[in-house]
User: Fold these one by one.
Assistant:
Number 1:
Amino acid sequence: DAKTTQPPSMDCAEGRAANLPCNHSTISGNEYVYWYRQIHSQGPQYIIHGLKNNETNEMASLIITEDRKSSTLILPHATLRDTAVYYCIVRGYTGNQFYFGTGTSLTVIP
Amino acid sequence: NAGVMQNPRHLVRRRGQEARLRCSPMKGHSHVYWYRQLPEEGLKFMVYLQKENIIDESGMPKERFSAEFPKEGPSILRIQQVVRGDSAAYFCASSPNVVGTGSGNTIYFGEGSWLTVV
């Protein structure tokens, strides 16, 4: 599976957009980018995933660069409940498992 | 549609006892994954199972740990002769079919079982 690199922590003001970057420079053409988050003491929650095109759902938007070497998860209006660890995962064809890295700890500040 | 159900949510065991953690996948899901999260650490893949088959157990410790997903009933993660280092949160996830890159399917997690070994 392709390696991903994320900043260890970020802060965001409540009500502002939170932009969480992820580098995956070794991604292969058939690998998807997935985002999950884990709020303290809860199970990981699926947010969004994409292959090439930008994606949007009720939770977030995913922007993937044209060369697919990086992506950004956007939470358009961050709330205190968005404080969590956010994981960017690239899933390869050789296995069906999701390998979690260390993620980005996002703190939304009032 | 009920989500992934795990029980017990909290389990306390003395060193040397056995711990059994159960996971019922989402309705219609036939694939189960177990992950372990040690305190202040990330999620580590343990095992991937289909009904009556272990597909990938590359993340399972070689001794004392086993997993099954019988034809009927929940998936079970069994830890024999627990030690304090087994204290962790154990998360189960499920998916509806082979999560291949072609489909882009994802996996959904339960709320976890917290094991404390005293």
Number 2:
Amino acid sequence: QQQVKQSPQSLIVQKGGISIINCAYENTAFDYFPWYQQFPGKGPALLIAIRPDVSEKKEGRFTISFNKSAKQFSLHIMDSQPGDSATYFCAARSNDYKLSFGAGTTVTVRA
Amino acid sequence: DVKVTQSSRYLVKRTGEKVFLECVQDMDHENMFWYRQDPGLGLRLIYFSYDVKMKEKGDIPEGYSVSREKKERFSLILESASTNQTSMYLCASRPTGFYGYTFGSGTRLTVV
């Protein structure tokens, strides 16, 4: 049973468009919510992360929105570029410092 | 640049073989992790280690064991490989008190 539910499984967006990936969790003990980006043949790399006392965090074209009461968080990729084509994983950290990952979303940006 | 190195990119093993997957990190991190990655399931934690000679079971430890004799090296062992262990295996490390994991590039294991 997955502790972090991620959707959609895949999405296709045109260059310049917005990609949105959603995640939901049940465990209120989670205290750190990172997003990882994975290119084919590579391991996941930390992209951006947020703490639950913050509702939004932006780094360049990537923004995390966090809704603590709904236990949901999302990744927005603004002005999507072909180089953003990758698999994205949301994750949540429990108080024993382990990360639980979502199932992943494959993003394809069409030029 | 910090690195987590997994010794093999691709492995093909036969059912029943004992398989060793090796992971080495050069960052002096205390914490190391083994995940397996399967389509539609994301990354699932197999085992982790907080220190040398220490190990903890993750969410799916059945059929696996680990060894950590030195701080920089964390080995995943499949005692008797089975076809349902065909997967991508990812090693990661993290320093104590820090949030971010550094992942290796993965080992794609096929058991035939």
